[in-house]
Design a protein that fits this description.
Shape: elongated
Order of helices and strands: HHHH
Helix content: over 70%
Number of helices: 4
Number of domains: 1
Distance between the termini: 9 Å
């Protein structure tokens, strides 16, 4: 079984790559706003009384790690490595999905509307990126069956 696109990419592959480029540009832009606010205004975010409470430094470093996964996913897909790209995308989706953790802490719903907006937008981007990753895997397996 091959896990990557053939050298002669189809028009569908080009559309997939364009769609991923747009999705990642939006997701990374939203994450810049969310993570920068989280780092700069760390003390304005409600903190848990128990359980994990990532430090300001960990929040900033995790953004770098997540964003590296987004870049790797794009490069891998552009090189035709669908499965590897899908894995990186699924991991990158965690960048937005981790925002759900804010709402496990008392006081999170009392944050200003604009903070709620970028947190929810980041979560939505995480869902969209995960859906894209799953679609890549599904389309790749259909292609392999047809080949």
């Amino acid at each position: 079984m091959t896990a990557h696109m053939p050298a002669a990419a189809t028009e569908g592959d080009a559309r997939t790559l364009r769609a991923l480029r747009v999705l990642l540009l939006v997701a990374v832009a939203v994450s810049v706003v969310h993570y920068a606010d989280n780092v700069i205004n760390y003390d304005a975010y409600p903190q848990p009384e128990s359980g994990p409470a990532p430090s300001r430094t960990l929040v900033g470093l995790s953004w770098l790690g997540f964003t590296a996964l987004a870049i790797a996913a794009y490069v891998l897909l552009r090189g035709g490595h669908r499965t590897a790209a899908a894995v990186c995308l699924a991991l990158y989706a965690g960048s937005g999905l981790v925002g759900l953790g804010h709402y496990t802490v008392d006081g999170a719903i009392d944050m200003p509307w604009w903070r709620q907006a970028h947190i929810v937008a980041d979560i939505a981007c995480g869902v969209a990126v995960l859906a894209f990753a799953l679609r890549l895997v599904r389309r790749g397996s259909r292609r392999e069956v047809a080949a």
